[in-house]
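Revision sheet: structure tokens.
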Amino acid sequence: MTGSLRRRLVLSLCGGMVTAWLATAYFTYFDTRSLIDEVTDEHLQQSAEVMLGFLDRLPPDALSTDLMGELQPGQRLSYRILSPTSRPHTSADFNPSAGEWRAGFNDIIDKGEGWRVYGASNNAGTRVEVAVRQDVRASFAARVAAHILHPVWIAAPLLAVLIWGLVRWGLGPLERLTAGVKQRSPADLSPLSPQSVPTEVLPLVGALNNLFARIAVARERDRRFAADAAHELRTPLAAIRAHAQVASHAKDAAESHQAISDVLIGADRGTRIVEQLLALARVDHDALGKGAQPIDMAELARETIALMAPRAVARSIDLALEVEPGLDATVRGNADLLAAMLRNLVDNALRYIPEGAWVTVRLARGEGALLLRVEDSGPGIPSELRARVLHRFFRASGSTTPGSGLGLSIVAAIVESHHGSFTLAGRADGSGLIADVSLPLWKGRSVNGQNSPDQNP
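Predicted:
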């Protein structure tokens, strides 16, 4: 939870403004302190020279503290006069107890106070020291810095109000966009208008419009799916009801047994349709990333062949698996969906070929992909119908084999979700059907811990 964007902007801008003002005052204080030090040193030097000039014109016996107090009335400078003909004269607040006189600028400590001192002398041997307390210089610099901060107490609230108003105005288009989305009904999936939307919000509007478009497609797909499923289930349910009525009015055991057998056949067909509908719905709604993992398609094919073998044996069909030697058949995907794809391909072949025919599942390496081929010797599919049989619930007219028309559409949907390709073709002699599935090889460690030639170490 990040909180209010308006509050974050206002606090950030006001905080930045105050921080900048304080930083300005901080650096101004030191700049001012340096400038005051220069001016004070120059003033000390000039005062010492003026004092020496005044002492040169003054008779030695006229030297007095009061006279020196009149020299600089109202000044904060202190002094000390060392004359060879009289005792030392000092101001009341400056009387260094130790230390000899030194020419030029010096920093001394007198009675716990820091002083800036300038010493000068004349040819008569008179020496003077003019001093100012360090805290006087520092306080003056602090007053200048504080003076700079005075406008903050007035300007800061005004600027805060101005910033709040500008932020509110700037976020106005976003609030209007939010209000527009809130007022929409669940059925309204029309795109949002990008007009009057700030440039920074355009990517969000584009993402929302793409989401609305995907939701609209999904809703339309679900609507068609529900309608097609209801239509397809109506036939086996009606047949089950009719056979059940026949069984309830049967005149002998043979007729009742036949009717019950027909009910079971209808129930099996309805069960298969429901299972295929659920599988197709799962492909439509599940993303590849859910349960995606490295899958050994060779092992998955062996399991599928073993599962389908009893049906093939019952109809004298030769069901075989051929794997290219040394092939690393590892792909990245959903194990349940890929197993359903294989089962539907083999089931479709077994369902439509005559007894005594053959079905071969082959795994080979393609160009950067795994090639899965299911080939049979059955009647095949006419070339003009091969694209249509991939549509849901499509069945060729005249077909007598029970089915729902969902098997190949499930295969196509699963292959598409795994970023592969699926094609149907006839054999060279014009008979049978070849179903080719191409899946990208997994770029990583194979399931047995070895790297394939096309995988990253």
